[in-house]
UniProtKB/TrEMBL annotation:
Residues 355-435 form the Arginine decarboxylase helical bundle domain. GO terms for molecular function: arginine decarboxylase activity; metal ion binding. It comes from the Bacteria. Residues 65-330 form the Orn/DAP/Arg decarboxylase 2 N-terminal domain. This is Arginine decarboxylase. The active site is at C486. It comes from Oleispira antarctica RB-8. Its cofactor is pyridoxal 5'-phosphate; Mg(2+). The modification N6-(pyridoxal phosphate)lysine is found at K88. Its EC number is 4.1.1.19. Keywords: Decarboxylase, Lyase, Magnesium, Metal-binding, Polyamine biosynthesis, Pyridoxal phosphate, Spermidine biosynthesis. Signal peptide: none annotated. NCBIfam families: PRK05354.1, speA. GO terms for biological process: L-arginine catabolic process; spermidine biosynthetic process.
Length: 621
């Protein structure tokens, strides 16, 4: 059974094989992720690894462009679609280059929001006519780069976000004698739901108000440059779960578009920004981590609303631009890690205390003996009472450690028994509702939440998480997942279940001498960008693969993650100087007779190997 809901969130890119393995799929092939993991092991690429599947990125760009093309054709819309990818969503060179490469056939462009992103775009796109949308605050240098891009043949638009940008653009373009392509971002009042809804509304920090817009038009007229205003930009927010809100935004944008045309602007592009959501939970709902529409509906609704609204004003159809980031890259990356250890909340075999055990322990044994379905609540109360009494006595020195541990053990035994009975109960008493969670195992995963999955910590983002093998066995444990940072926030305790969000994840019992691998899916958007160096865990290893039609695959690229020397130098340590100082400490220990010279040598070797090794838990070879 699909315990983890892969058919709902997998978007046809992930599935299960008959052998109980998660597979990555294209239309013509599928490859078990475990085969790729095996290849990584053979190449000494240790866990955790961020796996990128090129075909999925390729397919998403294809699906997006094709869905717009189909909608345009079906609705007889009289202009084209041009997508751009916002670099900030995942600015890794590998990803941006792949997008530029796969997007060439659709003239898929790039969106930039800063000078570094602009420089990246200018050296990644090669085709004249490629679209570059410049959002963000632009200084003289940024503007000059953009004007030069126009000269090189790129369709490089400056989207005015604040009134202060316009004088710089007018002045620089006149000085360099290059006509700019200008866009304007309007402040949308259509409110959307979801996490990023402050992007729109009166208090949004982005875009021009209507009065600023009128000033902009007048200033451009004065400068005889109104014909340069060719693009209207509106972005309602990221991950918009409800299609009706997107439609509402399109109608509002059309009103701006029509009236700006009426003012004499030569508009011919309309840019709806990002917002196309990813169905992380697979629920197909208007919940913030889902979406109540599919890609085809998104494209059809935009084209249809645009056409109908603008036709009323008899306005020529503009080129449609969208800046889909999340939906473009989320699916193609998977974080894979191994489980290092498990803590269980179960009684263990303890040596008997003897005949003179404390009365409270005997009381607890009685609770256990008379436990029934009907008396579950009473036994639960008694177990707590006796356990707490023992803890008090221990604090006051009246019972010893062995007695206390026997009491804790009995307590767990009683709770586990009650937990087993819960499923049989018609009505679960309120006190017992959280019992399953409080007894869940803790599976320790070899990763840092803060480095690889920061949105789980920051905004309670849900990602599909599941083991990538052994799915032909029933997962009999209920667990939460902890990372290896020393931070109590470094844990995952909300999971996407078959029906609903759950606070535990079904996992398999670990097997001796065998790794257990867990995958976190749909992590291609924003996670790499926002990750940080908590506890100095650095970038993970990254592997890019391409799946072939015969179920084989190629390791296209591999990037070794940060070494300890790398992360230390990010926080201004000097690894060479550090090694020297450590050498001096060791040499002094030799001189003062605490260690031998040979021991010193061994220590320095260990130190150096560590310094140039991976920041994560490494298995002994
Ligand atoms: N364009 C702009 C201006 C944005 O601010 C964003 C992100 O919030 C995007 C595009 C990307 O949005 P998404 O990832 O929802 O596609």
């Amino acid at each position: 059974a699909d315990v983890y809901g892969i058919d709902h969130w997998g978007n046809d890119y992930f599935g299960l094989s008959d052998q109980g393995l998660v597979t990555a799929k294209t239309l013509t092939t599928q490859v078990p992720l475990m085969d790729i993991v095996q290849g990584m092991t053979e190449r000494d690429l240790q866990m955790p690894v961020l796996l990128r599947i090129e075909n999925i990125l390729d397919a998403q760009i294809y699906r997006l462009n094709n869905a717009f093309r189909d909608a345009i054709k079906k609705l007889d819309y009289q202009a084209t679609y041009r997508g751009v990818y916002p670099i900030k969503v995942n600015q890794q060179a590998q990803v941006v280059e792949e997008i530029a490469d796969f997007g060439k056939r659709f003239k898929h462009g790039l969106e930039v929001g800063s000078k570094p992103e602009m420089i990246a775009a200018l050296s990644t796109l090669t085709e004249p006519g490629s679209l570059i949308i410049c959002n963000g605050y632009k200084d003289q240098e940024f503007v000059e780069l953009g004007l030069q891009a126009v000269k090189l043949g790129f369709l490089c638009f400056f989207v005015i976000e604040t009134p202060a940008e316009l004088p710089i653009i007018i002045e620089r373009s006149k000085q360099l004698n290059i006509e700019p392509l200008i866009g304007v971002r309007v402040k949308m009042t259509s409110k959307v739901s979801g996490h990023w809804n402050s992007t729109s509304g009166d208090r949004s920090v982005f875009g021009l108000s209507t009065s600023q817009l009128i000033q902009l038009v007048d200033r451009l007229k004065e400068a005889d440059m109104l014909h340069c205003l060719q693009l209207l930009h509106c972005h309602l927010g990221s991950q918009i779960p409800n299609i009706r809100e997107i439609r509402g935004g399109v109608v509002e944008a059309c009103r701006y578009y029509a009236d700006l045309c009426g003012e004499g602007a030569a508009l011919s592009y309309i840019d709806f920004g990002g917002g196309l959501a990813v169905d992380y939970t697979g629920a197909q709902s208007n919940d913030s981590q889902s979406r109540n529409y599919n890609l085809e509906e998104y494209c059809t609704d935009i084209v249809d609303t645009l056409k109908n609204t603008l036709d009323e004003y008899d306005i020529k159809h503009p080129t449609i631009v969208t800046e889909s980031g999340r939906a473009t890259v989320a699916y193609s990356s998977i974080l894979i890690f191994n489980i290092l250890d498990v803590t269980k909340f179960e009684p263990i075999e303890l040596p008997k205390i003897g005949d003179d055990e404390h009365q409270l322990l005997q009381d607890m044994r009685e609770v256990l003996a008379c436990l029934t379905l009907q008396k579950a609540q009473e036994c639960y109360n008694d177990a707590h009472f006796y356990r707490d009494e023992i803890r008090e006595l221990f604090k006051r020195g009246q019972v010893d450690l062995r007695t206390r541990s026997a009491a804790e053990n009995l307590f767990l035994e009683i709770l586990q028994q009650i937990n087993k009975n819960l499923e049989l109960m018609e009505h679960i008493p309120v006190d017992l509702e959280g019992l399953k969670e409080s007894l869940a195992d803790i599976y320790y995963g070899n990763f840092s939440l803060f480095q690889s999955l920061p949105d789980i910590w920051a905004i309670d983002q849900l990602f599909p998480i599941m083991p990538i093998h052994r799915l032909d066995e029933e997962p009999k444990r209920n667990a939460i997942i902890a990372d290896i940072t020393c931070d109590c926030d470094g844990k995952i305790d909300k999971f996407i279940g078959q029906q609903d969000v759950s606070s535990t994840l079904p996992l398999h019992e670990l097997k001796d001498g065998e790794e257990y691998y867990v995958g976190v899916f749909l992590v291609g958007a924003y996670q790499e960008t926002l990750g940080d160096l908590h506890n100095l865990f650095g970038d993970t290893n990254v592997v890019s693969v391409r799946l072939n039609d015969d179920s084989s695959f190629d390791f296209v690229k591999e990037i070794h993650g940060d070494t300890i020397a790398d992360v230390l130098s990010y926080v201004e340590y000097e690894p060479k100087e550090m090694a020297l100082r450590y050498r001096n400490t060791a040499e002094r220990a030799v001189k003062e007779g605490r260690i031998t010279a040979r021991e010193r040598q061994h220590m320095l070797k260990t130190y150096n190997a560590s310094m140039h090794g991976y920041t994560y838990f490494e298995r002994d070879e």
